[in-house]
Amino acid sequence: MKKITPLLIALSLLTASPAAWSKAMEIALDALHPESDHLQTTRIITKVIDKYHYRAAPIDDDLSRAIFERYLEGLDPNKSYFTQRDVEHFSRYRDKLDDALNGAELKPAFEIFRVYRQRVDERIDRALKVLDGEFDFTLDESYRVDRSEDDWAKDHATLDELWRKRVKNDFLSLRLTGKEDAKIRETLGERYEGIKRRTHQLDADDVYQFFINAYTLSIEPHTSYMPPRDAENFDINMRLSLEGIGAVLRMEGEYTTVQRVIKGGPAAQSGELGSGDRIVGVGQDRKGDFEDVIGWRLQDVVDLIRGPKDSVVRLRVAPEKAGSDGPEKTITLVRNKIKLEDQAAKTRILEDMPGLGDLRIGIIEIPTFYRDFQGYSRGDANFKSTTRDVRHLLGELMEKKVDGVIVDLRGNGGGSLTEATELTGLFIPSGPVVQVRKSTGELDLEMDVDPEMVYQGPLAVIVDRSSASASEIFAAAIQDYGRGLVIGETTFGKGTVQQLVDLDRFVFLGGSDLGRLRLTMAQFYRVSGGSTQFKGVVPDIRFPTDIRHDKEGERSLDNALPWARIDPAKFQRTGSADFTRYTDKHRARAARDPGFLFLMEEEEALHEAREKHTVSLNEAERRREWEGTKKERLERLNRFRVSVGLPPESEDALNEEDDEVAEHPLNEDGEDPEDVAISDIGAKEAARILADYIEDTRPRSAMVD
Fold it and tell me: Which of 15, 413, 456, 689 has the most CB within a 10 Å radius?
């Protein structure tokens, strides 16, 4: 049988009659089928996971049901396309996907996807018809934005009503930003047509990736498959001078969402982009048109955001703090490479402030655990490294006769395990730092073999919900050794180790290009025996913002590996103080501190925004809600700004909708004073806690020079 290429199909559709169009679409759908490489890749992936993955995951009926649910969720996360009848039709595969995987039989996944693509066509056609009509925004109607936990729509009539409200909500959201109705219709028409177009651009490799990752993510959230095309793009981007904004992105439903911003990058330096924010549009240069990216594949959005160093990218963002019905804002960023020097450790001294008396506390901020591996392998005696830099900074602080040191790991997502181990060694005698247990059960100890303690004085470590991986290893070791106080928020809880596996190595005859598998192969354990996985590191003294941490970090991810315990390593605690005894003093201070009051109000507002899944479709009511939210935000922000000596923010600054976003004047270090003041809330309180400890337990001459 002659093979019909997608290009020939596309060309034939340009001049086809309606009947021919329908027939061509059937051919196009039938042409979407698994290829021989997919079958071979499936056999290799299942065997590699079975042999090397840290979690034993037999391919059985239980796993089949999990894959089934995750595959449907991946295709239709907001339950906007499939009906209950569709799902019932698919259910014949619910207990058979394990057999399909074991037999490398991928037809069920492709059949489900073909129906999905048909449903997208139907829904988008319906949306475009609704868009051509008129809307009455005086009616008392509401739209449920988040349907992920709802039942599947009963029938097509139910979906018609859902999409009528969706289009009306999309229209109202843009109307409230000041756009004219004609421009709104144009924007939404392009958005909906784009969803349909991109769905038809998905090929067999994309369908296979969706399905095989439904399998890997049903085992554990950090294991995933990267097809050859994405692997090639990854390599190209690593080699060429393509730069970014310094943000880790992920897909949540139809939205590209910021998982975290990277310290030292353009996004972090702007102070405008935060975790949980949704990117809804991307524009090139300062005046280029915005590309609506709702419903786009993550890789396609990333490709738009990346670009040459010093070029400008503009993001249209729906801030998480504004809620599902809040106003969008524009952020202008200059692309740049995140250099080691931008993320290097730096130090400052806190003194002459309430709660410290005449004590001087040095703070060492470590954005990431960096190490110049190339310089090290070349034998460069001055290669860049976290430990080398901190050793130097400690020397400077001791020369300045500080009374205590704080290591600030807030926002530090990890990095080099070697650096985490060696950095710990600056503060403890020789001994184990972390235990690494492999999938085989083999246990490795990462050791500090240098008996020198560079600094023996009073020590504290500040962490937050974004401190992860290597940060958790360091904080846990300091806590287990009793070497210092751990202060702040419960950490992220990522205590697993991933390795990128080239699948071609398992093809004996060669010549294949099967992609790569990111595989979880080991888990970290503290020297005291408990894992850093899932639970994270719980501070000795917890800030009042450490609430609802069960919904943050690793604990919020489906199928995350659980906390576990192994035998403790042999180590000698260097301290025995009960640090929690300083909690009462901390709580009394925090209860009246304007900074913590501001943070708690922000936390509560964010929680309310996250929990709000339904929005009004009445324009007057929606405007009142918007104005009320902005007014509350401005009032609490200005209470805080005044408390730290900054001028009140104007309402115009929060209403800024132009491409050139208003910026605060920067201080002499190039930092936004408001961002510095917010960061100082935790840093200054940590200094006061350490001062309590110093005054209570140590003479001020405890510094070792």
Answer: 689
Token digits of residue 146: 């988040």
Handedness of CA 159, 165, 167, 173 (dihedral sign): negative
C-alpha dist (Å) from residue 627 to 89, 149, 265, 634: 46, 29, 32, 10
In a domain, 532, yes or no: yes
Q: Which of 547, 579, 611 is the last residue of a domain?
A: 579
**Residue 17 belongs to some domain of the structure:** no
312: containing domain: 228-334
Query: In the annotation, is 494 catalytic?
Result: yes
d(CA 366, CA 346): 7
Tell me the pTM. 0.89
What is the rounded CA–CA span in Å between residue 206 and residue 229? 10
- H-only helix segments in 218-347: 228-239, 266-270, 298-305
Question: Would you say 391 and 438 are in contact if contact means Cβ atoms under 8 Å apart?
Answer: no
Of residues 87 and 372, more confidence is placed in 87
Residue 480 is among the residues annotated as catalytic for this protein:
yes
Provide the domain count of the chain. 3
d(CA 70, CA 631): 40
Average the pLDDT over 43-52 and give the result: 96
Question: Tell me, what CATH number does 415's domain have?
Answer: 3.90.226.10
- Catalytic, 469? Answer yes
Determine which one of 86, 206, 389, 480 is catalytic: 480
pLDDT tens digits, 193-204 = 999 999 999 999
Q: What is the pLDDT of residues 556-610, one digit of tens each?
A: 999 999 999 999 999 999 988 788 889 999 999 999 999 999 999 999 999 999 8
How many contiguous H segments (helices) and E segments (strands) does the chain have? Answer: 22, 21
Q: Is the model more confident about 442 or about 227?
A: 442
The residue written with tokens 């200094």 in the block is 687
- E-strand spans in 148-254? 224-226, 242-243, 247-252
Q: Which one from 196, 263, 329, 494 is the annotated catalytic residue?
A: 494
- Residue 467 structure tokens: 């401190």
Q: Are residues 318 and 410 in the same domain?
A: no
Contacts of 695 (CB under 8 A, 6+ apart): 357, 359
